[in-house]
Every structure is written in C-alpha cells, then in structure tokens.
C-alpha cells in the first residue's frame, strides 16, 4: 500500500539529529521558554521574512490569540465581522467564534479554492473589520488583491498559514503578507513537530509583545498580569525538533513539487480535475504552491477511492463535511454554499509528502488513469 502520508518515514530521516537535539534539551534542565524557543522563533521569523515569530501551543491557538490580541489592543471588538472562506478547515472559523467575533463565510474561487477577491469585496459591510484568508492545500491566496481590498477598507488581515509553510507569491512568503499569520506545526503539516506546536508571525512590534504576554497568562513580567491570558506555549523539546526540521523544509518542498509535477503531467483521466496551480497561469514554474495536499476532483469520488485502494493507493478526503453543515454551527445548517458543498462532495487527496518516491508517484498515476468512472 502506498500510504497517504508516512510520518514515521519522514522523521526517521532525521533520527540522529532529532535525538541529539532532544538530549540537549533534557540535559539543559530548562524545558519551557528557553534558548531553544528563542532560536526557533528567530529562525522561523527569518524564514518568513517577518520581524517576529511567537511560538504557541498549536495552530488553532495561534489564530485565536492574534484575534484576541487585536481585541486587547482595541483594534477589534465583540460582534465585528471577519470574512473567511466557507470551504476552509473548521479551525479557521473556530478562531473567530472563540473571540465573540462574527464569521462571514464566502465561497472560494472556483479554480484555486482560495478566497476570491471579488466575493470578498461583495461581502464587506459596515461591520467588517478583518479578513482571514487561508492558503488552502499549500497554495497562497491572491494576497496582492486581498491586501489592496484590506487597505482600501482599513481591514486587518490574519493569514491562516497552517498548510502553507514556505508558499510564496511575488517573492513574499506566506506569513509575511497580512498584518499577522497563524502557523500550525501539527506533525502532518509541511513543517511538523513531534507533537502539537504553532506560531504567529508578524512585523507589528506591539502585537508581538501582546502575544508574548497572552500566551503566558497575560504576563509580560513575572507575577505581573496585564491581560487575562492563557497558557499556550511552544515547549523547548518541540522547538528543538522544529529547528532541526526547518533546515530541511525547502528541500522537502522541492520534493513535494516533483511529486505534484508527475501527477499533473501524467494524470490524463478525463473524469478527473487536477489542481490549478495559479503560478502556472502566468509563468512556467510552480514556485508558489508547496503542495501540503494534492487534491483532485471527481463526481465519482467513492468509486475512485475504492478503485485506488484496490490498486494499493491510500487516499483521504479534505474535508468531507463543510463547516456550515457541522452540528457545531447548527445556526448555519440551512444555508447554501453550492461551490463549497460540491468541493466537499468531490475532492480526494492523493499520496503526497517528502518520502513519496517518484516510482510510487508513477504507480499512483497508473492507478488513477486506469479508473473507468462511475460504472466501475
Ligand atoms: C491544521 C490546521 C489548523 C489548526 O492547526 P492545529 O495545530 O491542528 O491546531 C488551522 N487551519 C488550517 C487550515 C489547518 O489545516
């Protein structure tokens, strides 16, 4: 079976370095808020091109805490509207609700599945205060257009970069386009820890300072509490693991792109739609997309998934139920977002990752091309 994602194979490549880093932390006697975190925060901010990276416990907290910090700083308040793509992973939306803000769902662009600037523009009301674009599946959203709209309407922009470490548009990386960005280092993400971890990137000094307090009980200085904060920290062991893996991120991304290239160039099955790499629309290279996922579409998904399993190819669905149809958002269950709903019915993710071999990718291509469609 070609696994969808082989985490063990990914981490075993760096086993010796990871163990050395782990031993260093154990022997240091310092486990929270030390040199490992400071080093990773500097390296990751450098990597993204921002002034700051602030480590937190996970990606959802990164998003929650940025919005919370903006509330503390008086830039957002209860009931303000935040525009978010309807087809995102639910965490983006949970971060908005968790802060008493109002999520405004908009349908995505039909080619990139990312926030569509025209529909974004139409969704702006007098109460709109922020935009939460998601770089879904590893492809950066149309940030030049989104930032132009944000500037024109004086809106804050929080990028959800959980799937887009290193994605780039016009030479600027994901995490450096908006006023702040949330990253997840969940083990299966492109930059994955060996447990939960996350970070915020920003070049706003005041926001960075507020976040450093919020993640630590609201305290800037020991035993002085400026805010009613939380405990959401990125611990030393995970920071040390991430520093090892950050060095290999670009190399791993190149490999993901190679696998994607094999899929895109060789899958010819007419019943299947391939991802549109927007960078390809204007240039020869596909530099923008980091292929967290390689997501195809078909109206006979169930049959295709079964066919692929029979041919030794494991696939997953990202995601089977859209947020507005979840019980958690019962208040939205009677709404219709036709494009979002069709995506959730039709998408299928092929094996993708730094340890999928070129031969395995060719086998996936053959299995996909041998699918006969509905009647099978
Ligand atoms: C994974 C993910 C998150 C949440 O990250 P966690 O670290 O799991 O909390 C948020 N948004 C998107 C788009 C994600 O894929």
Structural overview:
This protein is an alpha/beta fold. It folds into 2 domains: 7-242, Type I PLP-dependent aspartate aminotransferase-like (Major domain) (Aspartate Aminotransferase, domain 2, 3-Layer(aba) Sandwich); 249-370, Aspartate Aminotransferase, domain 1. Helices cover 40% and strands 14% of the residues. The protein has helices at 7-12, 15-28, 35-48, 59-72, 90-97, 117-123, 143-153, 205-214, 236-246, 249-266, 278-282, 301-310, 338-346, 358-369, and strands at residues 52-56, 81-85, 102-106, 128-131, 156-160, 168-169, 172-173, 180-184, 198-202, 219-221, 224-225, 294-297, 347-350. The strands form 4 sheets. It has a 7-stranded mixed sheet with strand order 1-9-8-5-4-2-3, sandwiched between helices. It has a two-stranded antiparallel sheet with strand order 6-7. The chain has a two-stranded antiparallel sheet with strand order 10-11. Helix 7 (143-153) links the parallel strand 4 and strand 5. Helix 2 runs antiparallel to helix 9, helix 4 packs parallel to helix 5 (90-97) and helix 10 (249-266) runs parallel beside helix 14 (358-369). The longest helix is centred in the C-terminal third of the chain and has 18 residues, at 249-266. It is globular and about 65 Å long. The two termini are 21 Å apart. The structure holds pyridoxal-5'-phosphate (PLP). The site of pyridoxal-5'-phosphate has 15 residues, from helix 4 and helix 5.
